[in-house]
Each structure stands twice: as C-alpha cells, then as structure tokens.
Specification:
With about 325 residues, the chain is of the alpha+beta class. Helix content is about 30%, strand content about 25%. The strands form 7 sheets. The chain has a 6-stranded mixed beta sheet, with helices on both faces. Strands 1-2 form a two-stranded antiparallel ribbon. It has a two-stranded antiparallel ribbon with strand order 6-7.
C-alpha cells in the first residue's frame, strides 16, 4: 500500500516501520545540536488530528521554537488537507493495530513535511485523549482563562472564565479547533505554554525517570527509551527559561472551497519563518528551492493571520483573553 512517498508493509512482512528510502535528500545541511519534533493531538474523531505542530529544540542556545500548522492546510497538489491525508494514512494501517496506524500516519506526514515544506522531523509525539490526560494529570492540571463557552461533541460544556483544567478537559480544549474554525492555533499556543510552565514547576530532577515512565504508558512516540534519550530531552526542556518557549503560526491564507474553510500556505512569509524562526539549517533556504511544485500562495497579504505570530510567555498565560477579529479569536495579553 502506498501513501505519499512511503511504502506501508503489513505486520506479516516487516515491523510496521515505514520505508523512508524515498524521502528527499536535502542539499541544505542541518544545524548541529538542533532536534526537531512533530507533535500531533488526536481529536474526537479517531485518527484525525486536532492539532499539528513542528518544534525545534536547540540544545546549544537553550530554546524551543514551535510552529503551529493548521490541520486544514491544503497540500498534495491542492487536492487534500494535511488532516485528511493523516486520517487516510491512519486508516490504511489500522488493520495492523492502533500503534501501527499511528506510526504509519506520523511517519508519512514527517516525510511530507520534509518534501513539501523542507521541515525535516527527527521524532514524532502523538497524543490522544488518554496520553494527553496522563501528562496533564501528572502535573496536577493547568490554569487557563476560557474566553467563551465551549461545547463539545460528547455534550460536555466548559464555561468561560478562569478554570483549572485537568486531563480530559484539557484535551477537549486542545481539540476544540478541530471543529470550530479559528480557535485552533492560538489555543494551542496558550495550552502548550502552560504545560511547559507547569512542567518546570512540578517536576524535580530526582523524579524524572518516574515521571517519564508514567506519561509514556499510553503515549505513541518515536523517541526511544533506550539509553535515556527521552530523559535527555526532558532535562533540556526543564532547563529552559520560561521566556525561551516561543510559539508562532504558519502564515496561511484562508479560502473557502465548497463551503469548507481551508488554509493555503503563504510561500514568502512561511519561508522567512523557516529560515529565521526555526533555523533548522546552517544556511537559509533559497526561494528557488522552496515550493518547487507550486503548491502554495505567493501572496504576502496577512492582515488577520499576522496576529497569530507572537511569542507566548508562560508567565502571562493566566491573564490571557480573546479578541474576535474577522471570526478568528486572537489571544492577547
């Protein structure tokens, strides 16, 4: 079975690890001591992502830069969205079990991000309701000001106002953007920033192994446990200053097709963000090497989405509020 550039082989033939032999070989050299991660949060629909983000951890300078990417971003020649392709690939492998489906969908998306956006991924982390709830409960919940009443498919309602969110409610809020246009990117910034803040507050160095063991029980990830690799990354996260968790959003143009709102990557501003915000390569990517298949937009008009591009300091999360701008909620200090 083929999806993207990766061949999926069922369990009776191999070990469910996608074959990345066809992944592109980039001519740009990766920067040393920088590690990249794809994070996926599953929504209410099994195998369908509610959140996608790409993070670069610079272990030399001590920074973590995270780029939020809308799940409704048009790609694959403008025929499907990232979220739809992820779900399709998940379904391709589900007959071999949930672990195989998650692995195949994540690995295929990683290959696609490298091929189409020049974003190489070292590891993936896949959170569903159980694993994300485990993480949040392990740090005793997070506090957030809910800007408006949120109603969910399972009939749960989370009211506006200051709230201490425990595991499942946190997952619900994180998943909110998957079916409510406009809340997705900014909610993720605030929520993840709050998680990092509480991690530093709650986890001491003498319990790192126990903490990691507890949150990995139900977590799907390609980060290995052997040789303490996962502990290494956790130590690096906990050592960062609060101000050095930085978040931005992919520059997109919102378009309506068949009554559905879709996002199209804005080529020039997105490339600038790859070069200056993520800085995953030793040298800047040249425009002629980016979007060679002409899948993105050349427009630089970013009136609404410019408001997404901000650094969220964890120390101001509790005073965040929402301002409605052209049907998109902008979280501001």
């Amino acid at each position: 079975k083929i999806a993207g550039n990766i061949e999926y082989k069922p369990t009776d033939e191999t070990t469910n690890t996608p074959n990345n032999d066809n992944a592109p070989t980039l001519k740009y050299k990766r920067s040393d001591l920088k590690y990249s991660f794809l994070s996926v949060v599953e929504g209410f629909d099994e195998g369908a992502p509610a959140q996608l983000s790409y993070s670069v951890l610079d272990t030399a300078s001590g920074t973590l830069n995270t780029l939020q990417i809308p799940t409704n971003t048009f790609i694959s020649g403008g025929k499907k969205t990232l979220g739809a392709l992820f779900k399709e690939n998940y379904n391709t492998a589900i007959s071999d079990g949930r672990g195989a489906a998650v692995n195949y969908a994540c690995e295929t998306l990683m290959d696609m991000l490298e091929a189409d956006m020049l974003l190489p991924c070292d590891y993936y982390i896949y959170f569903d309701k159980t694993s994300l709830s485990d993480l949040v409960n392990e740090i005793d919940g997070v506090n957030l000001r809910i800007p408006f009443d949120m109603r969910f498919p399972d009939t749960t309602v989370i009211r506006s106002g200051d709230a201490e969110l425990m595991g499942e409610d946190f997952w619900r809020v994180m998943s909110y953007g998957s079916y409510a246009t406009g809340s997705e990117l900014n909610a993720a910034k605030l929520l993840w920033a709050n998680v990092f803040y509480k991690l530093k507050e709650s986890v001491s160095s003498d319990v790192l192994s126990l903490f990691m063991m507890n949150i990995r029980k139900n977590l799907y990830t390609s980060i290995p446990k052997t040789n303490g690799v996962d502990i290494f990354f956790l130590r690096k996260l906990l050592s960062l200053d609060n101000e050095l968790y930085k978040f931005a959003s992919a520059d997109v143009q919102n378009v309506v097709a068949g009554g559905t709102e879709l996002s199209v990557i804005c080529k020039n501003t997105f490339l600038e963000k790859v070069n200056t915000f993520l800085s995953i390569y030793e040298t800047d990517i040249k425009s002629e090497d980016f979007d060679t298949q002409l899948r993105f937009s050349d427009s630089a008009s970013m009136t609404v989405n410019d408001a997404y591009n901000s650094t969220v300091a964890p120390t101001v999360i509790y005073t965040a509020h929402a301002v409605k701008n052209e049907n998109i909620y902008i979280f501001a200090k």
